[in-house]
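Weekly structure sync, notes
Attendees: PL (lead), two postdocs, one rotation student
Agenda item 3: pending single-chain targets
PL asked that the sequence for the first pending target be pasted directly into the notes so everyone works from the same version. It is reproduced below exactly as submitted, 123 residues in total.
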Amino acid sequence: MTPPPMSNAVSTTAYKVLTADQMATLEKDRTFAGAPVDRADGYIHLSTEAQLTETVDKHFSGQTDLHVVAVDLEVLGEAVRWEPSRGGQLFPHIYGALPLDAVLAYGPLARDADGRVRLPVAG
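Predicted structure, written out during the meeting:
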């Protein structure tokens, strides 16, 4: 069954930054219920490709051993809502858990020569 199209979506792929422990949980349990801030807010925070570097710089500054997860928003269907946040930009939020089945690729957080966060590449 194909999920319904998402309104206001500019992309069908979004990104989640996870700590090493959170990444291990996703791999082991095949699902991720959210970081403490996600659970407190009631949804899992994601970023678009254009928002990812600023998200990392703002919320993960100084942290090491981080991972970037590419999420297929179409798989999640209506669990995804695009809502205004930082500067009025629309951000994708997952209302529910992130299943490993919705993950397209993941890998250690790395930056290119310009300082932008590199996107994970599927093998």
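Discussion points:
- The longest strand covers residues 13-19.
- Residues 49-59 form the longest helix (11 residues).
Action: rotation student to compare against the earlier draft before next sync.
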